[in-house]
Amino acid sequence: MSTTKSSLIRLHAADNVAVARVSLSPGAVLSEFGIAAKTPVPMGHKIALRAIAAGEAILKYGQVIGNATRAIEACEHVHSHNLAITDLHLQHEFCVDAVAPELFPEADRATFLGFKRSDGRVGTRNYLAILSSVNCSATVSHAIARHFNTSGELDGFPNVDGVAAFTHGGGCAMDGRGEGYAILTRTMAGFARHPNVGAALMIGLGCETNQIPAIVETQSLVAGPTLRTMTIQATGGTRKTIEAGIDAVRTMLPALNAQRRSVQPASELVLALECGGSDGYSGISANPALGYASDLLVRHGGTAVLAETPEIYGAEHLLTRRAATPEVAQKLLDRIEWWRDYVRRNKGDLDNNPSHGNKAGGLTTILEKSLGAVTKGGMSRLEAVYEYAERVSKRGFVFMDTPGYDPVAVTGQIAGGCNMLCFTTGRGSTTGYKPVPCIKLATNTPMYERMAEDMDLNCGEIVTGEKTIEEIGQQIFDKVLAVASGERTCSEQNDYGDYEFVPWQVGAVM
Amino acid sequence: MSTTKSSLIRLHAADNVAVARVSLSPGAVLSEFGIAAKTPVPMGHKIALRAIAAGEAILKYGQVIGNATRAIEACEHVHSHNLAITDLHLQHEFCVDAVAPELFPEADRATFLGFKRSDGRVGTRNYLAILSSVNCSATVSHAIARHFNTSGELDGFPNVDGVAAFTHGGGCAMDGRGEGYAILTRTMAGFARHPNVGAALMIGLGCETNQIPAIVETQSLVAGPTLRTMTIQATGGTRKTIEAGIDAVRTMLPALNAQRRSVQPASELVLALECGGSDGYSGISANPALGYASDLLVRHGGTAVLAETPEIYGAEHLLTRRAATPEVAQKLLDRIEWWRDYVRRNKGDLDNNPSHGNKAGGLTTILEKSLGAVTKGGMSRLEAVYEYAERVSKRGFVFMDTPGYDPVAVTGQIAGGCNMLCFTTGRGSTTGYKPVPCIKLATNTPMYERMAEDMDLNCGEIVTGEKTIEEIGQQIFDKVLAVASGERTCSEQNDYGDYEFVPWQVGAVM
Ligand SMILES: [Ca+2]
Ligand SMILES: [Ca+2]
Ligand SMILES: [Ca+2]
Ligand SMILES: [Ca+2]
Ligand SMILES: [Ca+2]
Fold first, then answer.
1. CB contact under 8 A, B408 and A236
2. Which of A91, A308, B337, B373: CA 20 to 30 A from B237?
3. pLDDT at A1
4. Which domain holds residue B219?
5. Residue A484, phi then psi, degrees to nearest 5
């Protein structure tokens, strides 16, 4: 895999095609590969690195994206005219690509400075969370958080990262035995006991479907010194509840402020992988570089959480091949089946085939398109599949079933326990998600330069040939450790995260 | 209809049953009705005001709630043992109860002080709205609003009620040709051109499904001096967009501040009717009193907008009987059919029959239960049925198809052009909804007293016998005029409305 000063990006050593960084004319010399272009190859399109026989598998990202539909000469343009998915059999095999991660020796494992919590998990931030059970208590929740964020009262608590309100548009007029209710309670509980949340206050109206006592009981939370609850109706209205909430937060702040960072193994990092506002570069720069970092984290004993089921739809067999057990593979296929039903019931369309624009950009098959998204999860064995907002308990590379929509996906990943987030973007997504720091990875240099105050790292240097995927991947890994230890990201400096808590709303609003 | 100092509440002059305000023992004398209880009648339950023959219709709210299943003596308890729906035919007739409203003579029509807008509509408040097309621009939108609400910069603009951000959890990863997208764009457009919004700024990220240029074009909005638009990606990131947004608001404030209240006819009022956190008193105090005020407004030439389809479900024929035309009746039934499908597709349950608790509280039939909700729309002829967030253009009493869930229902009503809101509550809902003032009507005195800072008017005096439905209804009407003219409600004093914009999310989140 070499990209420096080349006109080509070869995404994996086993690949028999590479991607043209620039438009190539016939005869263009590609020195380090010892080849010259035989045909015109548009920017972002594939070129054969050697002769490929008819029927032979085409490899990109080290994985099969289809087969040659005729003999392809070395240095020829590879696209719809000579590449298609012809052998569906291969991709349906469970676990055939699953290789146990080669963990680094204990002594070589990376560390960071984190907040060790009483349940053994480690936080990368130290927040007090105000969780609203229903939209009706959103204003009260924000008013309490605003008091602390504007009064200067937090100045006396330097080890507290903030008091943040997590409010939403749901919580009532929903089926109290349905999937949507289960998702909402799981999400709220996941935030309440999140390792980045040292103390929490849950506030309801009182008469909502999403009753706080039921959340506490069914989710095995423990109300006490670090989890307080109240309702507006029982407290006697808006002003009294804001005052009572401020008092409750005040009683929790000293213990929260007493928490200190200490040296912790990188194996305590649970990294959410996300992309939003993707472009034609996502699959060749930021995503594979993040995949490299993800694999590194797994080898340090940590956890990486891929998500966004619609992004892998139609190519889920890429992941089942990497599944550690047939049960893990089957659980993923079961979730895919659920999605087919969900979208059909909602009269939608889950087509993930390359669009006309994708094809013009050089993507030929659905496997190739999905690989561009999946590659941010690296190559590691798939250890587990989780439902939305389910607590992530396995280490290594895992998958969580979420929509692709950024705030909904990330809310689920955070609820599952992710304490770090890397977010690749091509068009320029600027958001962030309390209580977890979000590292923004730009796929291209022009966007990085235009939105420098919002982007933490430029993966566009892979596209320009200044850096390799491995070099940028290592930078991402180092950045994850630094940010986990307290370095603030762009989205934290821009104070994102007060409006991006969006639990997946499934089911009818009644 | 007389309730003062009585133990009974008779909801309509034509009724042959009344509701016991207190538990009645046999022999309890009910002087002004000239009767004495024959059997025990629990509080909230019905008592026969005269002998009722077997098969005869039982009338409450002046409408049929079922038929006597056996002969009922005067002063007997009326409930499941002697009342049921036996004649389904009656309720299915279209338009039979439709009577054209008796408008007051022009000279006697009420007026208020409102902001006359260039399109002829009249505002009751004068807001600048910041509308976010997608969750990704929520933080930027709130940051711009926060600047004006905390910097003191609005002090120079005393005729501006506020700069408010309307943000939400949707806007992307949705079907761009689906119902959910149509609802979202209609809702945003309804707020952008709302008579209470004198100027608006729409902010997007840039790459979202819910494109601002498409909203402007399909919804026939006109970008210009009172409607500015921008995206974070085109503007160059978070900080630059906040600065550009602040500048854009600054350029719009002088013209907004130049708007003045003037005397306007009450016919320009479009009153949203809503209930939330209902209790056993809702149907006998606040809701019928609001219905009285609603009928008054209609007679003054104004508009009242009933909503919350699930609350009338199973008894929609109560409204089709009042429909002005068969087309209006049929449109309501079509929406009910849509709801059956919506809930079935979402694996929910739309059962609106009286629950065990409802029955214990004295509600016998689904017609009676639905009438308790419908009664806040008074008795007037049903002039039109609107889909969610559709612009209300007919005057008089109309219906909008919305969920029962308060923030979603009210968001739709406001998008439709409602410039006033009356909200009945028994348990104590405290919320409010910018840019429209919300008058909170308490159904019972204990809650009113416990939450006095959140409740604008106590309809519990009907339950205690201190006031009649007509007296409280008149108070509500007078309060609507006062608030429309600028008097601030409890929820405005408590600064609700920055987190309660919740467009109905229909369809899959992908
Ligand atoms: Ca995404
Ligand atoms: Ca920065
Ligand atoms: Ca903040
Ligand atoms: Ca409601
Ligand atoms: Ca405010």
1. no
2. A308
3. 41
4. 127-258
5. -60, -30
